[in-house]
Amino acid sequence: MRTTIPHLSTVRNIGIMAHIDAGKTTTTERVLFYTGVSHRIGEVHDGAAVTDWMKQERDRGITITSAAVSCRWALDGVEHTINLIDTPGHVDFTIEVERCLRVLDGAVAVFDGVAGVEPQSETVWRQADRYGVPRLCFVNKLDRTGADLSRTVEMIAERLGALPLVVQLPVGAEGGFRGVIDLVAMEALLWPADAGLGEAPETVAVPAGLAAEAERARSRLLGAVAEHDEEFMETYLGGDEPTEAETHAAIRRLTLSSAATPVLCGTAFRNKGVQPLLDAIVRYLPSPLDVPPVEGRPADDGAPLAALAFKVMSDRHLGRLTFVRLYSGRLETGATVLNPLRGRKERIGKIYRMRANRREEIGAAGAGDIVAVMGLKQTTTGETLCDPAHPVVLDAMDFPAPVLEIA
Ligand code: GDP
User: Its family (predicted)?
Assistant: First the structure.
């Protein structure tokens, strides 16, 4: 059993939000696919592992109906845990969306590159504004006729009142969409026309025909970053070309303070653009250490336990599973915790990390993490679990608590 608790700075708790049909499901599936494949490659050093993984996925289907799924993604040699929290896309589930927004630390807003910003995206965006959730934008479906990144970016600014930081430019359009130019690194990431699942992009020089446009877009990006970030402004005005690390750091600061939102693009369906989106999630979205303490509880494994149950599901094999977000402290199998609202103690049964294709039993979870717990009999959605010696109620929510079936 793996009991290693990931370092807090390497955890990303995020939701993917979108207007219905914009591509939330497809993007989520691709995220789970690429993280599963890349992890397997890293672990086994064997090409055959990829084929096995793909077969397994085909046979079982990817579990994206779970309230939260964990995956791993390495950036610059550092492995990160990304917990994807399911955010209902339909506007009827607004209350559920709000509940999820309390549990996640950052979000990816997926837009349809043809339709741009649609009414439901606006609703969810405003909800995320209220909770101060830092966001990235992914303009999807650039392979479709009539898709237009610039128009969608204008809509993000005008309709959502956000400051978009366009960090990529598309290479090719519609059926000829090939990939993106990374405006920070100033290189192009290109996929084959019929990129298969798992296909990594080829990194090449910015195509000559797009060099001038890319330079202009980069100047706009750096200018906007400098205008809103003092530290970056000093480098920029000093006349030195900012390094990639300095630029990423400034974009991260602006994203974390919700002053700006980085915009990426691609086509999830045609497997182009999701791997750079994963890099951006790790680069720009917050870890639990970057968000303010809840009820004065710091994101610290050594502090007393404070956790929120945000969904109860009925699993065909395991029975009642309670999904919890830990804000501080540790949760361990066998421990006794207090549900202060009910004044009842509960015993923690097995703890699982839900992965795309399996459940991983872990003996303990740490602050900032999101896991599924067996054995809780009393606790329902919106209720707190805490250390009996240090009771705290995490802003209880009075919402109906549906028990959903998962496969
Ligand atoms: P959701 O309702 O936001 O979860 O959207 P889905 O992921 O189910 O996608 C809605 C439809 O758009 C499906 O038919 C997808 O196959 C299609 N779709 C998703 N991403 C893309 C894309 O990048 N390009 C194109 N052409 N179609 C896409």
Answer: Belongs to the TRAFAC class translation factor GTPase superfamily. Classic translation factor GTPase family. EF-G/EF-2 subfamily.
